[in-house]
Design a protein that fits this description.
The protein has a single domain, classed as Metalloproteases ("zincins"), catalytic domain (Zincin-like, 2-Layer Sandwich). 47% of the residues lie in helices and 10% in strands. Helix 1 packs across helix 2.
């Protein structure tokens, strides 16, 4: 006998009016800046993806689906450019490896040298 353990979804606290306005400002900036930069990085490193969406996730900076769709968090606009690029390159590498195994990290190191330092630095930023 086995049990299925469901992960509890993180719930977002209600936003204040000021926070909601900030989210909408970030969303507009992200929609204008992130898709062109993702396309640039993909072309530079030979990746092909289907679509990109800008989301306001509570728990991740980005994600990649098995179908080749990439989701980017609008909070990326609050990060320095090198960390934005790191997150986008990380998700692009998932197009080839949908895990965090050794092959994935080897590819990420090729397209983003020093990526482990960026990963550590990213942890000092919080999502809103």
């Amino acid at each position: 006998m086995f049990f299925i353990i469901r992960r509890r979804r993180r719930k977002r606290k209600p936003l204040t009016a000021e926070q909601a306005a900030e989210v909408e400002r970030l969303r507009a900036q992200a929609k204008a800046a992130l898709p062109p930069r993702l396309a640039e990085l993909a072309a530079l490193h030979g990746f092909t993806y289907k679509a990109v969406r800008i989301k306001h996730n509570v728990s991740n900076w980005g994600s990649c689906s098995e179908l080749g769709n990439i989701n980017l968090n609008l909070n990326l606009m609050r990060l320095p450019e090198h960390l934005r690029d790191y997150v986008m390159l990380h998700e692009l590498c998932h197009l080839k490896y949908l895990n965090h195994g050794p092959e994935f990290h080897a590819l990420l190191e090729i397209v983003c040298p020093g990526h482990r330092a960026y990963q550590r630095e990213l942890k000092s930023y919080k999502l809103i």
